[in-house]
Specification:
alpha+beta, Porin, 2 domains, 11 strands, elongated
């Protein structure tokens, strides 16, 4: 353990106080003054002690994700359609860690949604109007409490990747850049427990002209630059 100069000064002061007391047992007025000086030094060191170690929070959540559509067209460009994601439940986990500045936290977000991608007016393939798939997000960013605390209203922003994974293993997966912005409220329950309510917008960028769920050949390609979803969620934050 490293001994600081302040701690050495305290030890010296204590030794001086004891020596002075033994040498001048009858001089109670000076002894009292010396004791007050020692008390003031100890109090000052206490008030200027380093802050507590940063805490972390883990928040499993459940929610509901809505919206999400992208324009697509046939490979030859003759047919255009709209690809829509079905509104379904979502779930995941959020990891937070306190930053040095009060009210600011780092955030890692992982979300999962099982849904279906449907075409408005056409078929992906003969007899196939919808494709079941799972959407994953893994994103990194931060969270800010304007009040400088670890509960109350907050704003959040994270960026990362979206994975579109069809249930049919013959279809290709897609990985795209994604950005989420949102806010919410954390209700204080105990020192180590919060109730977190979230509302976030999730934007996933698409490669306009890129293929759509290929299997060997590609029948469709994206004509949109991205799609937007909204997610409302609730979870318990466990702080350690």
């Amino acid at each position: 353990m490293k001994i600081t100069s302040a701690q050495i000064n305290v030890v010296d002061c204590v030794e001086h106080s004891i020596t002075f007391h033994l040498a001048s047992r009858d001089n109670r007025e000076l002894y009292s003054m010396n004791l007050r000086h020692l008390t003031a030094i100890i109090l000052g060191l206490t008030l200027t002690s380093p802050p507590a170690i940063a805490e972390v929070g883990i928040s499993p959540f459940a929610g509901y994700r809505m919206g999400g559509s992208a324009g697509i067209e046939s490979a030859d460009g003759d047919t255009q359609d709209e690809l829509r994601f079905e509104d379904t439940a979502s779930h995941g986990i959020i990891f937070n860690f306190d930053l040095p500045e009060a009210g600011k936290q780092g955030e890692i977000y992982f979300g999962r949604q099982e849904t279906s991608a449907k075409l408005d007016n056409g078929l992906f393939a003969p007899g196939t109007r919808a494709i079941d798939l799972t959407i994953y997000q893994l994103q990194f960013g931060g969270l800010y409490f304007p009040g400088g605390r670890t509960f109350g209203g907050f704003a959040s922003g994270v960026i990362g990747v979206t994975r579109l994974e069809p249930d049919n293993s013959e279809l290709d997966n897609h990985h795209r850049v994604a950005l989420s912005l949102g806010g919410g409220y954390q209700f204080y329950l105990t020192d180590h427990l919060r109730l977190r309510l979230d509302l976030r917008a999730i934007y996933t960028a698409l490669e306009s002209g890129g293929s759509v769920f290929c299997s060997g050949g590609c029948a469709f390609k994206f004509r949109s630059n991205g799609y937007l979803q909204a997610e409302a969620g609730a979870g318990l934050v466990m702080r350690f």
